[in-house]
Specification:
By secondary structure, the protein is α+β, with helices and mostly antiparallel strands. The chain has one domain: 2-Layer Sandwich (Yope Regulator, Chain: A). It contains three helices and six strands, in the order H-H-E-E-E-E-E-E-H. The chain has a six-stranded antiparallel sheet, with helices on one face. The protein is globular and about 35 Å long.
């Protein structure tokens, strides 16, 4: 993992270390999706296919990390909600993650669908 990933995470999660486990769980599943580029920003990390950003990871409160998704065909699910402007204009839905356990098979399946839709 490039050092800029860890530096960005250290900065973003410095005052919320309990959320770092969620960030790490999302990053750990990226290799199974396919080729993913990671761009760090001051307040979030963008995940990109060769074509465009398909997701963002952002610690938004002391108890939640939002996984924003560029997903026009998102299913109707209580786990998904409108993203608001904080995650960027490309994000169409978000999943609020409160623990690494929220990175479950359903979320992994959704992330694969979003990745594939943005190739």
């Amino acid at each position: 993992m490039p050092t800029n990933w860890s530096r960005a995470a250290e900065s973003q999660y410095a005052d919320r270390p309990q959320l770092r486990e969620i960030y790490d769980a999302v990053l750990a599943l990226l290799p199974q999706l396919g080729e993913v580029a990671i761009q760090t920003r001051k307040t979030y990390v963008a995940l990109l296919t060769a074509r465009r950003a398909f997701a963002v990871i952002a610690p938004v409160t002391r108890t939640r990390v939002d996984l924003g998704l560029r997903w026009e065909a998102a299913p109707d699910s209580p786990r998904l909600s409108a993203p608001g402007s904080r995650l960027g204009s490309a994000v169409t839905v978000k999943a609020g993650l409160h623990s690494a356990g929220d990175v479950d098979d359903e979320l992994i399946g959704w992330l694969q669908q979003v990745y594939d839709a943005n190739l």
